[in-house]
Amino acid sequence: MRSLTLARTSLASVVAAGVGAVATSPDSAWYLSLDKPAWQPPRAAFPAVWTPLYAMIALASAQALDTSTGDDQRQRLWRTYGIDLALNAAWTPLFFRARRPRLALAEIVVLDAANVALLLRAWRADRLAGAALLPYLAWTGFATALNAAIAVRNPGR
Q1: Nearest to 65 by CA among 21, 12, 113
Q2: Core-most of 6, 12, 131, 149, by most CB within 10 Å?
Q3: What domains lie within the chain, and their CATH numbers?
Q4: Distant-in-sequence, close-in-space partners of 7: CB < 8 Å, separation ≥ 6
Q5: pLDDT at 112 over 90
Q6: What is the spatial distance between Cα 98 and Cα 104, in angstroms, rounded to a whole number?
Q7: What's the sign of the alpha-carbon dihedral 28, 48, 116, 56?
Q8: Whole-model pTM?
């Protein structure tokens, strides 16, 4: 893996994580007033899960990018990676800042599709890199279910 590619994917992941960290407000009166399912993880679980996930996204994407065959495959993978991280970064402001769980739900469904596209492109370049993205898909699938439960339990919010 080339260090420049890893530096670029790491920087992009740090930016996406930073947007999420800044936009998250789990102590806000609005969020605390929401009816949430009993199976929601404790607050500390989110950074504990997201930190290694962002690292894995950066590593797996760098590996896939560096083993891509041809400029066209590499460009498609970069574009997919960028779109995926932009969608990833957009969810938190939609949910916490705009206070729009239903809109955030629609957005995370699109993110889930982008995650699948990223995994497939990475898999074509390097199977181990693609497989390394599976925990990301699993976590965002769980986050989608949690977002859906909150949206259903809090109609009109």
Answers
A1: 12
A2: 12
A3: 3-25+40-153 (1.20.1260.100)
A4: none
A5: yes
A6: 9
A7: positive
A8: 0.94
